[in-house]
Write a structure and sequence with these properties.
Elements lengths: L20 E2 L10 E4 L4 E6 L6 E2 L4 E7 L2 E6 L4 E6 L6 E2 L4 E5 L1
Parallel strand pairs: 1-8
Antiparallel strand pairs: 2-9, 3-5, 3-8, 4-7, 5-6, 7-9
Length: 101
Amino acid sequence: PQAAPAPAPAPAPQAAPSAQTAAPAPAASGNGKPVTSPLPGVIVEISVKVGDAVKAGQQVAVLEAMKMENAIEADHDGTVTAIHVNKGDSVLEGVPIVTIG
C-alpha cells in the first residue's frame, strides 16, 4: 500500500533512511521523475548534487550488486531536484535514487 503524499507547500528536507535497507517510496511531491534502482545493491557513489543539470544517459550514481559496479544513468534531461539515498545505503529494486525535474 502506498501512503498518500503529504500536502506540503515546499519540498520536505531530505532525511537519511532509518533502516539499513531503503524501501521503495513514492516520488517527491511532483518535483520531477525519479531515477530508480534497477536491482538490489549498495550505493557506492553519488555522482550528482541537487541543482545539477543532467542529460539522458549521464551517470547519476554507482550501485554495487553481485560484486559488480553498475552505473545508474539519467533516463531524461533535466535538473536534479532531490537525492533520496546516501553512499553506503542498501537499496532494493525500484527504490528512487534521484529525482530529475
